């Protein structure tokens, strides 16, 4: 069969394992030299395609490509750039097709979350309308775990492992000093819309009284009095209280805790931070000594503590994307199908993008304990396998060894395009 | 020779490896059953000795003791409790001796930082005056790396490795998205008095332009205009800017950045956080999109990423403490002596507590780059070996396996004592 080129791009917030998916895509492409010629990566995601800013992946060494598997961040650059609707911004989509045509790109692999699934679908539809034979496959990725159909999203398992481990470790720290020092520790985690990551913190403890003692979910309207009463009860019963709070925690009326009207010395609105806000309530209402941490990007970049399950799945969806494309299955997304909980078994399936785009998966209510401060056994059963296994990166001089892309640019063939 | 009991206690802020020292002390004691009978651990540090709240370590399994080597926090409980001066609070010191006498404790191992070295010395002096034959050894521990004589303090190397790794990982994250998203990332690290931990963040990068681009030390008076100018220059030149800021960062007049007068909606002084404060300046002065993280206890509890060098040294000072005691060397502290930088070699020596107590080791000025925003080669040479090697804990169900002390209490023999 004829040989054509492939395009790969990363989209949206990066994860500890998005490069493992890149590795999966690239290595799978390289296993089919009869069908796939060069792999071009979009520099800074889809912007690279629009501006014809392409990296020639074939000029990277085999070692560099293999090392992507254990390198966090987005090696080719990612972007927060959502293509606008196709009706009013048709030129953007047409430009993509032009660039693909100019570089004989017939395979389009787009690695991202919900928005990029939608973009991928639209590009596929337009290419069809324009009579350009493009096979578009979306490679799932998001720490938020909010993609539908797939049992979980690559990227989430590693954040979950990091947060569960950090909660366990810091809980031991607090527990050992609570008699004379910090009584309440608050860890802020990501998840603006859904409490998946916060829920993962609960994996650190199991039995009655084991920390974390409170998990604050975006899904449960925040009630200060109830939360503080629970903190107080924990300190009285266990000597200390560990709280995992989602950045998306909000009041009944939808106001985020982090936006609760704090101002700085200049009268400017105080900059986010649910953890310090919660800690401030503890101080005001209960007077306990507190400490707080905001994990922020540390949690989604922590490849050193990636879940082996997550790494393998991230790689597998990348490799599967290429198989699907070579099989002529257009506008699809590889999905993870859970076969069994314990022992955990999974396989890769696929779903049409039309069923994926513009649908978010939220935490089921039955995953949150009735009192709203913890997870149920059903949730534990779901989450537990996702953090299984370690795949530590190689270290050099005490630090993780990472892939550094040479980034040879492909010569431009088209006029400039302003986005 | 006669057999007597030993007492071990943890003091002050715990670290990822203080239990490795406990393991070193206990296993070394157990190798000398002819000389050392039982090891009693103070529950919650020295408070356990004062209140006769002792844990019988001989009732813990060999596996539990071995597992201390990879368990963060303070397994027997630590405390923030400084014994007052001996003149006005002689009863406290006398009580310690009484408890030791009642339980035939002739070996006193105190595992902590500068304050506990001082306490250890005083206890030793008083026992001599009172004619009670006690051998008191201080086991060094502090993430702050501020103990004198010893080349470095056990506990520091692991925080250093965690901060350097986190800086490297998050830098890759920011770099990959800076074209359309976050331009400035601020990571707040511990170190109220000295910039050792902040300096460790600089190990993440080496060449010109490699992140972190700015390190903010407590030792260098903070100049907002200069710092913001540098942030702006980095964003213009590299596309982004990564900042590691010490919690102890302060202005010329000594005011901490974290205390710069922010108030919340209730007019209360806003709760710390140098990172959000710095990020706020970036927003106000430069308008860049920012993110910030506060590592807080995560950094000192992160046993999962401990430095192998640090674990080995923590164990070694514990074991050496017992050797010193059995050798009759009273009022001493095992120290780490650097033999060579590369390859890194070290050995354990010992120093008299009289030379250790009440002396803090600060960062030498020649370790800070002339512009005040980075480290020198001399600093790098000093720091680099301390993060070498990995000693990952065993994992179970995706989480680090930790020691859980059974904590059998020793029967009390004395009247109650109120502290």
Structural write-up:
The structure is a homodimer of 419-residue chains. Chain A has 419 residues and is α/β, with parallel strands linked by helices. Chain A is 35% helix and 17% strand. Chain A folds into 2 domains: 4-142 and 304-358 and 390-400, Rossmann fold, CATH 3.40.50; 156-301, Rossmann fold (3-Layer(aba) Sandwich). Chain A contains 13 helices and 13 strands. In chain A, helix 1 (18-30) runs parallel beside helix 11 (308-326), helix 4 crosses helix 5 (114-129) and helix 8 (224-238) crosses helix 9. Mean pLDDT of chain A is 94; it is low at 262-271.
Task: Enumerate the spans of chain A where pLDDT stays under 50 for 5 or more consecutive residues.
Answer: 262-271
Tell me the greatest interface.
A-B, 83 and 83 residues
Instruction: Sketch the major β-sheet of chain A.
Output: 5 strands, mixed
N/C terminus separation of chain A: 36 Å
Global structural class of chain A:
alpha/beta
Shape of chain A: elongated
Summarize the structure.
2 copies of one chain form a homodimer. With 419 residues, chain A is α/β, with parallel strands linked by helices. The first copy, chain A, contains 13 helices and 13 strands.
List the topology elements:
Two copies of one chain form a homodimer.
Chain A: E1 4-10, H1 18-30, E2 36-42, H2 46-50, E3 54-56, H3 62-67, H4 90-102, E4 105-112, H5 114-129, E5 135-140, H6 156-177, E6 184-189, H7 196-201, E7 214-216, H8 224-238, E8 241-246, H9 274-286, E9 290-294, H10 296-301, H11 308-326, E10 332-340, E11 345-352, H12 353-356, H13 377-383, E12 395-396, E13 399-400
Helix pairs in contact in A: 1-11, 4-5, 8-9
